[in-house]
């Protein structure tokens, strides 16, 4: 009897949330994963971690996002950077009311790319409920997003505005990127796993599985946005 478990094909992706201290990274993650908004600011020390499943409608696929909440305060810089390794997605955040956080965006992108290379990313402006205290102009935020080649979301973690959209978009971007980048290694791993689990199964079956997996990959191919 051939056994295939769902987790053999389930997608899990490590996502890092980066940006200056106080921009609302923890609030964004908590709102998304727990529908909870922490009013009080407690700076993250090192890293924190939450996970949530996202269903990507356009591709009819479920992805488990493992969200790594990193500390934005400079004092933790050297520690948090090592946690970027293995991330296949990043959310770069700045705050509507903190110009410095906006000016640090390129720097955060570079830090992620130094550890992870060019992975799917999204740019987020948080605290849009405080637009009357804004220290950044709309045209400059849009120009930055365009220069960096990133999709840009204006969100409010406090009022849960466009929070889910950020992660749904990133999950879709990841799936499409993954098809291109990881196609060959994943096929090989899938076949080896199956072969090991079903040592007694026929060569004919192994070949059929290979064909099935290949067709699955091909049917999802596209041009990535990054
Ligand atoms: N008005 C408003 N306040 C927000 C929003 N999101 C977060 N905050 C507040 O901003 C402060 C900082 O939020 P955090 O989520 O802790 O910020 P952080 O980016 O995780 O900060 P570090 O852990 O130091 O890197 C908290 O007091 C939050 O309540 C928002 O959308 N609107
Ligand atoms: Mg935090």
TrEMBL record:
<dbReference type="InterPro" id="IPR005225">
    <property type="entry name" value="Small_GTP-bd"/>
</dbReference>
<keyword id="KW-0547">Nucleotide-binding</keyword>
<protein>
    <recommendedName>
        <fullName>Ras-related protein Rab-23</fullName>
    </recommendedName>
</protein>
<dbReference type="GO" id="GO:0003924">
    <property type="term" value="F:GTPase activity"/>
</dbReference>
<dbReference type="GO" id="GO:0012505">
    <property type="term" value="C:endomembrane system"/>
</dbReference>
<comment type="similarity">
    <text>Belongs to the small GTPase superfamily. Rab family.</text>
</comment>
<dbReference type="InterPro" id="IPR001806">
    <property type="entry name" value="Small_GTPase"/>
</dbReference>
<keyword id="KW-0150">Chloroplast</keyword>
<dbReference type="InterPro" id="IPR050227">
    <property type="entry name" value="Rab"/>
</dbReference>
<keyword id="KW-0934">Plastid</keyword>
<dbReference type="GO" id="GO:0005525">
    <property type="term" value="F:GTP binding"/>
</dbReference>
<dbReference type="InterPro" id="IPR027417">
    <property type="entry name" value="P-loop_NTPase"/>
</dbReference>
<keyword id="KW-0342">GTP-binding</keyword>
<dbReference type="Pfam" id="PF00071">
    <property type="entry name" value="Ras"/>
</dbReference>
């Amino acid at each position: 009897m051939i056994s295939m478990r769902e987790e053999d094909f389930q997608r899990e992706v490590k996502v890092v949330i980066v940006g200056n201290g106080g921009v609302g990274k923890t609030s964004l993650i908590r709102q998304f994963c727990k529908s909870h908004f922490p009013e009080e600011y407690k700076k993250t020390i090192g890293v924190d971690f939450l996970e949530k499943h996202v269903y990507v409608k356009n591709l009819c696929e479920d992805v488990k996002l493992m969200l790594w909440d990193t500390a934005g305060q400079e004092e933790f810089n050297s520690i948090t950077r090592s946690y970027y390794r293995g991330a296949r997605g990043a959310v770069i955040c700045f705050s509507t009311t903190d110009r410095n956080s906006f000016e640090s965006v390129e720097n955060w992108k570079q830090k992620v790319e130094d550890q992870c290379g060019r992975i799917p990313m999204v740019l987020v402006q948080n605290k849009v409920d405080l637009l009357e205290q804004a220290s950044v102009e709309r045209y400059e935020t849009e120009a930055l997003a365009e220069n960096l080649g990133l999709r840009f979301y204006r969100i409010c973690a406090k009022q849960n505005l466009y929070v889910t959209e950020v992660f749904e978009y990133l999950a879709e971007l990841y799936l499409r990127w993954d098809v291109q980048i990881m196609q060959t290694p994943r096929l090989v791993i899938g076949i080896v796993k199956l072969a090991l689990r079903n040592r007694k199964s026929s060569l004919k079956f192994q070949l059929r599985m290979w064909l099935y997996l290949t067709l699955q990959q091909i049917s999802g191919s596209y041009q990535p946005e990054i």
